[in-house]
Amino acid sequence: MSKHFFGDTAVLLGRSLRHITRSMDTIITTTIMPIAFMLLFVYVFGGAINSGSDSYVNYLLPGILLITIASGIAYTAFRLFLDMKGGIFERFQSMPIARSSVLWAHVLTSVIANLISLVVVVLVALLMGFRSSAGVLAWLAVAGILILFTLALTWIAVIPGLTAKSVDGASAFSYPLIFLPFISSAFVPTGTMPGPVRAFAENQPVTSIVNAIRNLFTQQPVGTDIWIALSWCVGILVVAYIFATVTYRRRIS
Amino acid sequence: MTTNQVQSPPIRVQGLEKSYKELRVLRGVDFDVARGSIFALLGSNGAGKTTVVKILSTLLKADAGTASVNGFDVATQPADVRESISLTGQFAAVDEILSGRENLVLVARLRHLKNPGTIADDLLERFSLTEAGARKVSTYSGGMRRRLDIAMSLIGNPPVIFLDEPTTGLDPQARIEVWQAVKELAGRGTTVLLTTQYLDEAEQLADRIAILHEGRIIVNGTLAELKQLLPPAKVEYVEKQPTLEDVFLTLVGTGGKDGKDSDAHDDATPARMSEEQR
């Protein structure tokens, strides 16, 4: 690792954070869809859904937070793609800097941008009646899981960001990720789903992550869900990181 | 810096080969560039000029052959090469969302220099961008972007600069501004490798010109030497017509936006306007 890694990453992070603060619309568009889903499900479908919870918004929020992240990382791929295409990427690579810091700056920017979006969505949920008895530790645990999930999806987003041929290609990968919560326990309990769908729903990462966050919010024992959730997040993170790094090496040599 | 740099020329390319899958782009390219000179690599689209520049700036690895920049081997000492060079690519590599000044400060910081703000202000002044310095680059004209791009490449005074088609897509005035900047650079002792598909640009700027064709350098020499390759000039009497470039520049004024004098106009190079189109 180059001696300048941290300094260079900090400088480049400052650069991409400026991109975000100068176009807050990316934060807003990231949050619009999850907020729209939340309104739709709470005020239209929610009355007819038997979630087994007192307040449907309480039941729904964890899944909405995951959708927020899935839609937010599309911008990570988009920003990376623009750098690749615009030539500034090559300028950085031909300069005496730590080469991996170019990528890390984008990854850290993604985490910060997604945290801002998550805060916005939680504030809207509070307005809609979301309440949690969770203490500071439980909130920190929720934040930790969400950051880990963001990192995992961000490293996935790096791959299309580096390899896409068009803007659409760079962000299209996020659609299936946005859709994944619908076939999970995020919106309805999995108990009513037919066999194969239920098997898929109960064994895909979103369900365990949603259940873990929901239990933390309602101060229930988190049980094995949190360990399954963490294994999914770390597993995806490691695999995506390896593939992204290999892709990056191939791009810069 | 080190002694081996003094002996070897700042750019030395020997037997360079590169293929993209089946396509053999470079088939053994050799050339040297002398310190403080401007060397033009001339060739049509797809001749492999950019590939040469990318290998020299450590963005691509060659399949065979060696290349050294400032005495450092591009394959085995890429970090030292990157300390010695600046690359101005085919497309202005500037950050559109940042201001011109912020772009310069960014590069100065990444080169780990002290006083990035002062460096930025000096370069803004030198490239007549002081007024536009605080504006977002997305509001700049093509010529201003290119000037900013070149200014960013000068930060840290690298001894070797690569300019890959620096005037492609620029209007005649902006082109003259860029030429001026390049001449100034070489005047300060910087070694410049320039690629271009515009013959007049090579004629205007280069101390030596090499023509890259079908993966090899087919000629390499000064303009006078290249001219001798053809039969000696015949004397003919031709009525001197102003070129369209002369007309254009006279009508719109040559100084550009900043009132800088341009000597390129006096040289009255017959530029073919069709080349101005992308």
Automatic annotation (TrEMBL), chain A:
TM spans (from-to): 27-49, 61-82, 103-130, 136-158, 170-188, 226-248
Q: Which organism is it from?
A: Planotetraspora phitsanulokensis
Question: For the ABC transmembrane type-2 domain, which residue ranges apply?
Answer: 25-251
- What name is this protein filed under? Transport permease protein
InterPro entries in UniProt? ABC2_TM, ABC2_TM_bact-type, ABC_2_transport, Nod_factor_ABC_transporter
Q: How does it sit in the membrane?
A: Multi-pass membrane protein
- Which key words tag this protein in UniProt? Antibiotic resistance, Cell membrane, Membrane, Transmembrane, Transmembrane helix, Transport
Q: In the UniProt record, does the keyword Membrane occur?
A: yes
Cellular component terms, GO, for this chain's entry? ATP-binding cassette (ABC) transporter complex
User: What Pfam families does its record include?
Assistant: ABC2_membrane
GO biological process, alphabetically ordered: response to antibiotic
Automatic annotation (TrEMBL), chain B:
- Boundaries of each ABC transporter domain copy? 11-239
User: What are the annotated GO cellular component locations?
Assistant: plasma membrane
Biased composition, class Basic and acidic residues, residue ranges: 257-278
Q: How does it sit in the membrane?
A: Peripheral membrane protein
Q: Does the keyword Signal apply?
A: no
Q: From the UniProt record, which GO molecular function terms apply?
A: ATP binding; ATP hydrolysis activity; transferase activity
- List, in alphabetical order, the GO biological process terms annotated in this UniProt record: response to antibiotic
**Compartments reported by the entry:** Cell membrane
Of which family is this protein a member?
Answer: Belongs to the ABC transporter superfamily.
User: What are the protein's UniProt keywords?
Assistant: Antibiotic resistance, ATP-binding, Nucleotide-binding, Transferase, Transport
Q: What is this protein called?
A: Glycosyl transferase family 8
Q: Show the InterPro entries listed in the entry.
A: AAA+_ATPase, ABC_transporter-like_ATP-bd, ABC_transporter-like_CS, ABC_transporter_ATP-binding, P-loop_NTPase
Location of region: Disordered: 254-278
Major location category of this protein: membrane
- Origin species, per record, is Planotetraspora phitsanulokensis
